[in-house]
Amino acid sequence: MLGYEQGLISLIMNPDKCKIILEKFTVGIGDLAEEMCGCDIDAIKISSPFAGMGFISPEHYEEFVLPYERAIISRIRAKGKHVYIHTCGHIDDRLELMRDSGASGLECLDPAPVGNVDLKNAFERIGKSMFIKGNIDSVYSLLYGDDAKAEADVLEIIETGRRGDGFILSTACSIAPMVTAKRIELLSRLVGKYGIYRP
Length: 199
What we know:
Blueprint: H1 4-13, H2 15-37, E1 43-47, H3 58-64, H4 66-78, E2 82-87, H5 95-99, E3 105-108, H6 119-126, E4 131-136, H7 138-143, H8 147-161, E5 167-171, H9 181-194
Parallel strand pairs: 1-2, 2-3, 3-4, 4-5
Helix pairs in contact: 1-2, 2-4, 8-9
């Protein structure tokens, strides 16, 4: 058994063994995903929280993540279902690699300071190939921001997102536990008033 730290070190120290393990997991996860596709679902989320630049380089992403995600994704897409990738934090340096997985969409696209993704730039780079879901800062906009900041931040994201080809407004990652119901209601109100889609 290895912890996360030793697992990441093993990518460098024992890459061939890591690939054997990844291949085995890929088959098992692909089998599970195909079974899920037989249910009444719209999409499957592949959560890869350790695939951002805080953990592995783009080169290691291309070697140790992309081939295995692509294999799982191709099996899901062959069943007629959508699949999207969830990776937290700093992913600006690998957006195109994530697109190349064949996924239908991508979330969280965390903005600074939690991440480093500029939403407009992300649309320009990958928005024609996959939907984008995000990227409201749950902590600094919804939790710590005053009402004016929270509203301004959300409106800016709506304005950027509705000019893209496929956008789902949401918090970048999860909703911070102490965010009030009032702030969540704000999202719904602003989308209803300003979120008319303009492809």
